[in-house]
Amino acid sequence: MKDSNKPILDIGTGRGSIPIFLSSKGYYVISVDMDWSILAEVQDKAVLQDVHKRLKLVTANSELLPFADGTFNTVVCINLLHHLQDYEPTLSEMRRV
Questions:
Q1: What DSSP line would sit under 30-42, residue for residue?
Q2: What is the pTM of this model?
């Protein structure tokens, strides 16, 4: 994955553990969450851990991702689907991007 020109997409940033970990291992990560205040906290953590240059945080709905088809080789979605009333639109978007 590190050799790919494509970033990893993390859907459902939460407290940022997964995207910060992946960034610390040298991967470029784009992480999306609907809650901008959570993303602001994660940005602060990323700066403190010096991974902010490899991590882009985007406010977005998992059912309508703002990325072109085939943007990513890898999509990570941990601890999100059980929060959704209908997870099929999110799964569809994961396949699309």
A1: EEEES-HHHHHHH
A2: 0.89
C-alpha span between 84 and 97 (Å, rounded): 19
Of 42, 66, 64, give the one whose Cα is nearest residue 55. 42
Per-residue pLDDT tens digits for 40-83: 999 999 999 999 999 999 999 999 999 999 999 999 988 776 67
Strands across the sheet containing 8-11 = 55-59, 29-33, 8-11, 74-76
Residues 6+ apart with CB under 8 A from 95: none
Cβ-based neighbours of 5, under 8 Å, separated by 6 or more: none
**CA separation, residue 62 to residues 12, 48, 49, 92 (Å):** 8, 27, 26, 10
Q: How far apart are CA 75 and CA 7, in angstroms?
A: 9
Unique residue bearing structure tokens 């959704």: 84
How far apart are alpha carbons 15 and 6 in whole angstroms?
A: 23
